[in-house]
Amino acid sequence: MSKLIYQYYCPDGLKKRRRVTNSSCLVIKEAEKYGLQWQIIPGTPIVTLTYKGQTKSYYYQIPSTTTALGQYACNNKKIASNLLRKAGISVPHGYRISRTAVKKDWLKVFNALKKPLVVKPTHGTWGKNITVHVTDKQQYLQAVELALAYPGKRHTGAIVEEMFQGQEYRILLTREKVIGIVKRVSANVVGNGQDSIKKLIKQKNQQEIRDVKGGGKSHIKIRMDKKLKKFLTAQKLSLTSIPKKDQQVFLRRVSNISQGGDAIDVTDLVHSSVKKIALQAIRAIPGLAFTGLDFMTKDVTKKQNPDSYVVIEINDSPGFDIHDYPYQGKNRHAAREFLFLIFPELKKAKPPDF
User: Fold this and answer.
1) For residue 10, pLDDT beyond 90
2) pLDDT score of 1 more than 60
């Protein structure tokens, strides 16, 4: 399939805007396998799918079965957190800071919580403007300012939470089933005893599974930016350091795949209680049909209890290409499951050849 582009109207006619999301492209490919007709409505990110005379739509990774209420809850992280808490789901202890709050109020929040802290925008995505491992007031004040400066969201506030110590996972699911679970590993390289960290990063960036953001691959190339260099310095390392053979060097504090991390499929390894909690979580959000759950736990293979895990976020438009093309592990055919959510009758249709 050739590269698909969203378009927009201007006085000169339709112009290219940006590449269609990778996950959306995967859905379109699956739709073609089942003989569906599709169209991207000009001037919009809406994709229409037609099967046996019936037309349904989705945009980005949001199916038409997700309601406005479901989107509203997910787009405000504090609202989602409160709904999850009411349903008995463990969430991080924290508070919301509005744009109009004064620094005196910021400090009240800082003093009320156990350190380290996580500070993030209420409406953010892709791991942008998030600060983790916040321990001192100066760092905290800078982190709040960064969260409030999240681009393109005029009403964005900041969320300040106590940081949970554990491994981070992304759980993709509908209200009826868990589709796949990946462990999110922070951007890293593994030493060979000969090459510098800089060279190891360049080598990893050449992997077929990686590309720049929006480039059509499930994993993003590692950027050698100021944050990466600062994190290395904190470990008494630099880009010229040569790690020992098999030494794993982490390059960022955050585990986002959008920041160069790795997605390792662990769907078959998790304890059944993890899937049970995930289903309970999506059902706690009214009108949410499909989601990516950010889940942290001390041990994903053991039965969970209220103190062993937290649900960090619940997303209404999750990128699911990492489940179809994980860094390691099985293809969970998430795009096909998304298509089945829109057209359930396809489950009984003749499956495509794989």
Assistant:
1) no
2) no
